[in-house]
Amino acid sequence: MNRRQFLGGLMIAGLSARAALGQVGDAPLQAAESSSSLFASLRDGKPVQLDAEQLAQRVFDSPAPAGPAGRWEARAPLPVPRSEMAWAAALGGRMHVIGGYGEGAVARPYHHVYDPVKDRWLKAAPLPRGANHVAVAADADRVYAFGGFVEQNQHSDRNAYAYDPEKDRWAPIAPLPRPRGAAAAVAVNGRIYLVGGASEPAKERASVGWNEAYDPKADRWTALKPLPGARDHAGIVAYDGKVHLIGGRFNTFEYNTGLHHVYLPDQDTWIERAPLPTPRSGHGLVVYRDRFFAMGGEQGRIEGGRLTEGKVFGQMESYDPERDSWQHHAAMPTPRHAVAAAAIEDWIYVAGGGAVLGGAVQSAVTEAFTLA
């Protein structure tokens, strides 16, 4: 072997190692120190401890049959306690967490990236404008961000952006045909489907069933058959060329659902499958080991203008698409809603989220689940 061949082999080996870490061509990102406080108040951004009444909102029991328990482990907390994401995107072996509530404000442009290999957070280029409940998805070599609310869970917009990790830069793309926040986004065969959400007018903030697909190559949107049950704060995954939308709410957390609809792109139609055992909204949903894992979420009830019931879920339930059935696993140690969740290698990572019903308390907690 001559020197050129030897050096070439070293370069290829180096590129392969970097590819395994999702670092090929990516711009170097600044490390972001984890927050020293796990919980903070939305009112002023100051650290808080959950009191007995707030801790009583935590729910762990599932009506689904038991499956393998698996285990949870603590990971490096987020740089700031934050919540109201929708939800996260995995690209190149890293998890991108975008927008949300934090540090006493509801429309943050945060963009934190979690590196599971080194268990650390990085600071990436912020979203061009702050918002909460921004739908995100990864496709090919880009992360996409769609819509969101610029006020507290209301007043949606049409903004859409694509993030280039090689340049650490966001660029505007074709805006949404109609404004919405708390929608669900997922990539399937070169198109990104944006389903459900809530729209204008802000004071009504009604759920919608819109199903629109974005073509990154053409930078164009196409309207498709609407979701049969309009809702927002739902979980979404892609599997076997199909789009699964699971759970969510009809307008408010008082009206959660376990509905499980499947969109068939080649037929432009929806079918129904086994519902989520624990109806909830604001939960994470990921594909892991050929099953769909749902974790977290919230539910509440308001009577006479006062909160009479609040639940924050820790349940981890998984769906088998071959058997159309659900089971439950070890519950998330720290129940949260509006979380960032992504499956990378043989782990599911769940970061941030609301620690109590609604947006009053944000969390920096990051926990990881595995069946290994």
Summarize the structure.
This protein has two helices and 34 strands. It has helices spanning 3-20, 52-55, and strands at 30-32, 39-41, 58-59, 71-75, 82-83, 89-91, 94-98, 101-102, 111-115, 120-123, 135-139, 142-146, 149-151, 154-156, 160-164, 169-172, 184-188, 191-195, 211-215, 220-223, 235-239, 242-246, 260-264, 269-273, 284-288, 291-295, 298-303, 306-313, 316-320, 325-329, 340-344, 347-351, 361-363, 366-370.
Topology:
Elements: H1 3-20, E1 30-32, E2 39-41, H2 52-55, E3 58-59, E4 71-75, E5 82-83, E6 89-91, E7 94-98, E8 101-102, E9 111-115, E10 120-123, E11 135-139, E12 142-146, E13 149-151, E14 154-156, E15 160-164, E16 169-172, E17 184-188, E18 191-195, E19 211-215, E20 220-223, E21 235-239, E22 242-246, E23 260-264, E24 269-273, E25 284-288, E26 291-295, E27 298-303, E28 306-313, E29 316-320, E30 325-329, E31 340-344, E32 347-351, E33 361-363, E34 366-370
Parallel strand pairs: 3-28
Antiparallel strand pairs: 1-10, 2-33, 4-34, 5-8, 6-7, 7-9, 9-10, 11-12, 12-15, 13-14, 15-16, 17-18, 18-19, 19-20, 21-22, 22-23, 23-24, 25-26, 26-29, 27-28, 29-30, 31-32, 32-34
Q: How would you describe what is shown here?
A:
- Helix content is 6%, strand content 40%.
- By secondary structure, the protein is mainly beta.
- The chain has a five-stranded antiparallel beta sheet, with no helix packed on it. It has a four-stranded antiparallel beta sheet with strand order 4-34-32-31, with no helix packed on it. A four-stranded antiparallel beta sheet has the order 11-12-15-16, with no helix packed on it.
- The longest helix has 18 residues.
